[in-house]
Design brief:
GO terms for molecular function: bile acid:sodium symporter activity. The protein is built from 17 helices and no strands. By secondary structure, the protein is mainly alpha-helical.
């Protein structure tokens, strides 16, 4: 193992500190049976803490998705599919641009095989649902955010192996194991509360407003929990080399910037640019760790996980900076930022027009049926 690249403390770490990926098991049992530890009780305590972390984060994430779903209407989602420009640009940024950025950054920093592969797998993973919460906090297009995140996860069955085939050849010839079961679980955890939230908004609008606020608060709790627990569970990641630090700290900001630039080039509205920027930079850790764990030995996995872990901390910090910068501009900027943009107004008008048209057609059908009955009598 190259100690110059990953740091001496990381190379000598006890493998009982390995991340236990959400929805993954793979090498955990292998690690427990082959690595000498101070005591089985200590290992069990560590595993229990990680399991508690996974369960807590998952439950909180479900509450967040449910809450954000309560801010989405079926009509808004329909409009995005009728005019899929925003979806296409978001998927372009996330599926095509982001892996290339990862490839270029890893080569420019001279990464060797193991950390480079960890960075690449993080980049090819689908969007994480936390992007929808941050999009909500910056008055972004939450329906667009949900649509991009869901579609990128569904498309991950094909895009992950394709991107790995294109870019991984620079560092390794090893065959990756794509954890389709884990991706399916992520899809289920994503879509189920989202659909439930949309249904609540459709039938119980007042309750939906309350749940939406709860989801936003849960987002704050999740960010705080993630930052604290990741640091407590995996302190070895902070012993990484300066190259990994540079990549992990700069990567979220570079991704946000490219997502914003691409959406600007396609002349998307400002609130949608913010959404695409966040979608481009926030990935799904669970899928990333499941791929690494399924494909590599415990020793390689221990080093490959360092970049995703550091990235996980720094992308949340970058998201907070993004939100803070937006809120400052919104309040103190030279020109007030409109939370309701012309495009949002247009979307709302289209929804109303659609609803009025449907109501008009229903009236016409009723009138025609009434006339037929009169004629028959």
């Amino acid at each position: 193992m190259n100690t110059a690249l990953v740091g001496p403390e990381v190379s000598e770490m006890n493998l009982q500190q390995l991340p236990v990926p959400l929805f993954g098991r793979g090498n955990v049992s292998h690690t427990e049976s082959n690595v000498s530890v101070n005591s089985s009780a200590g290992l069990q305590e560590s595993y229990s803490l990680r399991l508690t972390y996974d369960i807590t984060i998952t439950c909180t994430l479900v509450v967040i998705i449910l809450g954000m779903g309560c801010g989405v209407t079926p009509d808004l989602i329909k409009i995005h599919f009728k005019r899929p420009t925003g979806i296409a640009i978001g998927l372009l940024s996330q599926i095509i641009i982001l892996p290339f950025l990862s490839f270029a950054l890893a080569h420019s920093l001279g990464f060797e095989t193991i950390p480079a592969v960890g960075m690449l797998v993080m980049a090819v993973s689908p969007c994480g649902m936390m992007s929808s919460v941050f999009s909500y906090w910056v008055d972004g297009d939450v329906p667009l955010s949900f649509t991009i995140s869901t579609l990128s996860t569904l498309l991950a069955f094909g895009t992950i192996p394709l991107n790995l085939l294109i870019y991984s050849g620079s560092w390794t010839d090893e065959e990756f194991v794509i954890p389709y079961r884990s991706i399916l679980i992520v899809v289920g955890i994503t879509i189920t509360p989202l659909v439930l939230g949309v249904g609540i908004r459709w039938k119980f609008s007042k309750a939906a407003s309350i749940i939406l606020k709860i989801g936003s608060i849960a987002g704050i709790i999740l960010v705080a929990l993630s930052l604290i627990l990741l640091s407590l569970l995996y302190p070895f990641m902070y012993s990484a080399s300066w190259k990994i630090y540079v990549a992990a700290v700069s990567y979220p900001y570079i991704s946000f910037m490219f997502g914003y630039v691409v959406s600007t080039l396609f002349r998307m509205d400002n609130f949608q640019r913010r959404t695409v920027a966040l979608e481009t930079g926030m990935q799904n850790y669970a899928v990333c760790f499941a791929i690494l764990e399924s494909s590599f030995s415990a020793e390689k996995f221990s080093v490959m996980s360092i970049f995703p872990l550091l990235y996980g901390v720094n992308v949340l910090i970058a998201g907070i900076v993004f939100v803070g910068f937006y809120q400052i501009l919104k309040k103190y900027g030279p020109e007030p930022i409109k939370t309701h943009t012309p495009n949002e107004a247009r979307l709302q008008r289209e929804i109303k027009d659609t609803q009025m048209t449907e109501a008009f057609l229903e009236v016409r059908v009723t009138d025609n049926e009434g006339k037929e009955e009169l004629c028959n009598t």
